[in-house]
Amino acid sequence: MRSTAPFLVLLLLISTALADGPADNVADQVRPVPPLGIELSQADRNELEGGLAQLNKKIEQLRKSKNTKLQSLIPDVEIFSRAIRDAISHRELFHKNDITKAREVLAEGHARADALNEGNAPWTTQTGLVVRGFRSRIDDTVQPYGVVVPESYDFSGASEYRTDIWLHGRGERSTESLFIHERMNRVGKISPANTLIVHPYGRYSNAFKFAGEIDVFEALDHAKSQYRVDENRISIRGFSMGGAGCWQFAVHYPSRFFAATPGAGFSETPEFLKSFQGETLSPTWYEEKLWQLYDCTGYANNLFNLPTIAYSGELDIQKQAADIMEQAMGDQGLKLTHLIGPQTKHAIHPDSLETIESKLANLADRGRDRVPTTIDFTTYTLRYNRSFWLTVDELAEHWKRATVNATLSGSENTIRVTVDGVRGIQLDLAAGDAPFHPRQPVQIEIIEFGSNHDSESATTRQILVGPRPESDRSWHCQIHRDGDQWKIGSRPATSGIAKRHGVQGPIDDAFMDRFIIVAPTSKGFHPETDAWAKSELDHLVHEWRRQFRGDAIVKKDTEISDDDIATSHLIVFGDPASNVLLKSIHSELPIRWNEEGSRVTTGENHKSLDAANHAPVMIYPNPKNPDRYVVINSGFTYREYAYLNNARQVPKLPDWAIIDIRTPADSLWPGKVVDAGFFDEAWKMK
Q1: DSSP string, 545-609
Q2: How many domains would you assign to the chain?
Q3: Does 486 share its domain with 537?
Q4: Are residues 517 and 471 in the same domain?
Q5: The pLDDT of residue 392 is above 80
Q6: Contact (Cβ atoms closer than 8 angstroms) between residue 12 and residue 351
Q7: What is the number of H-type helices and E-type strands within the chain?
Q8: Could you tell me if residue 118 is inside a domain?
Q9: How many whole angstroms separate alpha carbon 107 and alpha carbon 112?
Q10: Would you say residue 211 lies in a domain?
């Protein structure tokens, strides 16, 4: 029987999503995203600003408390203050009723501050709709998320709860104040029984990529600290832009969830933009390679290990996302479960939702397969390098397809590993998970295909004798390729720096963890490049708030501490004359200015260009701390044109580039890119 629950009826009211139109394909006429809101009347401004000032005083009083538990809950209050601050400062209230919503958001902030100043936090034991906040590691800003706590939740019990992460659709007006108000008042599109629902903000409208991707995990981690989440019953779900996010989480993190249910959205960049946006694409060679960071079709093989239920409306243009994934999975011998809502445009048909919920409930009963016997894994970058008990440590070459198939055989005390394009892996089985005989060493059979092999040979086969399992039935082993042979153990540290997980580029990768912008304090080699660097620094600060909803941390080059170097990626602007930090590491970088600052040179046998008109941008392991990046003269590399369609929000520049600043920066580029490329696996110029 068809469900008639009110939230299902709402699904039919979702407006049809159409292409953004040809006007959004004109790069020199980019409309603002988010749009500029209404001008507040003086009375409304005075009311909101007065209420905000009072709330901030209450928050300051809370910060003086020595109660650590109280201190940990301040982000649950501060999210309301920051939301109203930005709504006023940046004109992000778009209709008169948004002002009413802002009043309600502000009132809730006051209620929480008053309660917390009295030592109470009633929202922490509240069922139903709850808005929570956490302080992000990336830039220290408080970020909101919503949670739906089932009425059955027992705050004094021990039972762990199934948890569904729901990724929201695109909303150019979904700024913090309006997101918080919605999460205070609407259950959302899903509401399975006895299930916690986590609604990440995702840092606005970026399809849960880059900082939006990290926001999802930070929200989940915070929810785990507040509620009893069953680690083996976490699903990833979403529709429209949230469906796109769901696809990328599913293929990049197949071992984190018990199931994925992507609906509509997009799953790759080029074909979607052609079909949905009607855009004519003419990418550079490095842009095409960089599509592989988020294009899910190349990672379709990873769904071998993750139950996936896709949904599309029969008449929805965004059905293309599941269709192209179905084809990509078919190429890997996998058949996609693809539910189609009959005669439905951009909405979830209630019958289809009922089927999805039934299938998902069955999968939740079984839970995540913690220790699959066989793992199939594909990647193009060490940013995404793990699936269950397999971790890829080294690639033959980034942005080329790399695959691993690994199978446990307890009866034979063997792991069979088939690799292509991989030079190092870890195999980790936790306590109780190793199926091997405890008195016998584990044999590792390695079969390597030749498509990414250093030599001319095709397939090679090798047997290694690994360690015995430990007495707690755990087992750990690293292997790496040395020349034409695989060896037990990790690569010797004497090999020098190498691309590895979290330090592998490209430039945009630096903005997925804590970063500090390092501003120059002196005059540079040339006034033209000084002005350009300052403009790009200001652009990053402005667009970080607008696009990723954060307040970037900016320090002068003379203020950078040892702790900053130890904990943060450093985004350095200027040249060795204007920036003392850059001067201190300049000789150890692969792209250099000469002593007179007259030439910029990209290593031996590469271009040497006049420094008055050219500026380098790049990412590189910080010579002062190779566990963190230094980025020179660049923010995140997609610009305002990409804001118009989430599928465009992909890296535009690789590991390094040289910019001719005589061409003004625009909505696509920081200037004219005259040369660009990737560093090799040892961070050397190719």
Answers
A1: HHHH-----EEEGGG--HHHHHH-EEEE-S-TTT-HHHHHHGGGSSSEE-TTS-EEE-STTS-EE
A2: 3
A3: no
A4: no
A5: yes
A6: no
A7: 15, 28
A8: yes
A9: 9
A10: yes
Q: Torsions phi, psi of 547, nearest 5? A: -95, -40
Count the neighbouring beta carbons within 10 Å of the beta carbon of residue 373.
11
Cβ neighbours of residue 366 under 8 Å, at least 6 residues apart? 258
Which residue, 311, 338, 366, sits at the end of a domain? 366
pLDDT of 10 > 80? The answer is no
Q: What's the chain's length in residues?
A: 686
| 446 and 512 part of one domain | no
Separation between Cα atoms, residue 236 and residue 246, nearest integer Å:
6
Sheet holding 625-632, edge to edge: 554-556, 515-519, 569-572, 625-632, 614-622, 656-660, 672-677
578 and 470 share one domain: no
**Do 145 and 274 fall into the same domain?**
yes
- The CA-CA-CA angle for residues 551, 559, 555, to 5°, reads 20
For 252, other C-beta atoms within 10 Å of its C-beta total: 21
Using alpha carbons, select from 77, 221, 230 the residue that is nearest to residue 163. Answer: 230
On whether residue 348 sits in a domain, the answer given is: yes
Contact at 8 Å (CB) between 273 and 244?
no
Chain centroid offset of residue 70 CA: 30
Beta-carbon count within 10 A of 311 CB: 26
Question: What 3-state class would DSSP assign to 447?
Answer: strand
DSSP string for residues in 366-412: H---SS-SEEEEEESSTTS-EETTEEEEEESSTTS-EEEEEEEEGGG
Indicate whether 35 and 123 sit together in one domain.
yes
d(CA 110, CA 107): 5
Residue from 380, 400, 410 nearest 392 by CA: 380
How do residues 297-324 score in pLDDT, each as one tens digit? 999 999 999 999 999 999 999 999 999 9
Question: Domain of 359?
Answer: 6-366
Beta strands in 213-274 (DSSP E): 229-239, 259-263
Q: Which amino acid is at 325?
A: M
* CB 328 within 8 Å of CB 338: no
* Cα dihedral 575→579→585→586 (10° resolution): 20
Tell whether 418 and 269 lie within a shared domain: no
- What pLDDT is recorded for position 62? 96
Check whether 12 has a pLDDT greater than 50.
no
64 CB neighbour count, 10 Å cutoff: 7
CA 442, CA 410: separation in Å to the nearest integer?
9
Q: How far is 143 from 132, CA to CA, in rounded Å?
A: 9
Q: How far apart are alpha carbons 336 and 93 in whole angstroms? A: 42
pTM: 0.95
Integer Cα distance of 56 and 83 in angstroms: 12
Q: What is the biggest distance separating any 2 CA atoms in the chain, rounded to whole angstroms?
A: 79
Q: Please check the confidence at residue 517 and state whether its pLDDT lies above 70.
A: yes
d(CA 390, CA 602): 37
**C-alpha closest to that of 638 among 241, 211, 229, 277:** 211
23, part of any domain = yes
Number of Cβ within a 10 Å radius of residue 15:
8
Task: Give the separation between CA 629 and CA 620, rounded to whole angstroms.
Answer: 6
* Cβ(261)–Cβ(235) below 8 Å: yes
Same domain, yes or no, for 526 and 668? yes
CATH number of the domain enclosing 124? 3.40.50.1820
Q: How much is the pLDDT for 458?
A: 62
